[in-house]
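pasting for ref
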Amino acid sequence: MVKNPKGSFSEHWVFKNKEFFDIMDVDENGKVTEEEFIDSSTERAEQVLPSWRAKAVHGILSNAYHLWWSNEYNNYSKSIPFQEKLQTEEVELPITREKIVKSGNDWLGAFDLDCDSKLMVDEYSNFLTFFRNTGKVQDIFDAVDWNKDGVIDTNEFIDGFEDFWVGQEPSSSDVFFGTRY
């Protein structure tokens, strides 16, 4: 199991998770709904991916929503404010490092258009567009491309994905899903 810090999240962790929450809160009303998380996001995927990959993203989103967002700990709520999301994070969810890695691999596979287990800047740009990024793509790409070889390989993607979700301290993975400024 990935250990959650039982309410002792760092301010930085809360900040970056609030930024992700805001990405998913498309109507900016302070709540993320199932429709925003799954359906609106799938529509964004359809704008940057072939249809079969957009369907894969729909599956990834459905699984994530029901594991991380709407679950037994919040009575399967369909409209979740940030504070409720934080409270859900404080319980021992059945999440292992292996599940985080699998989820990261699923995301990589959905956006790796040439199936080479790497993302070039144009593929990562699609990933960032999906997450409503407004920041400079090349700067974000460079932050995630830790070995500076011009591609985001599987290890960099998985490490960045995992660090974003569990890392408590500032790191280059903080911009993994893009920025909104």
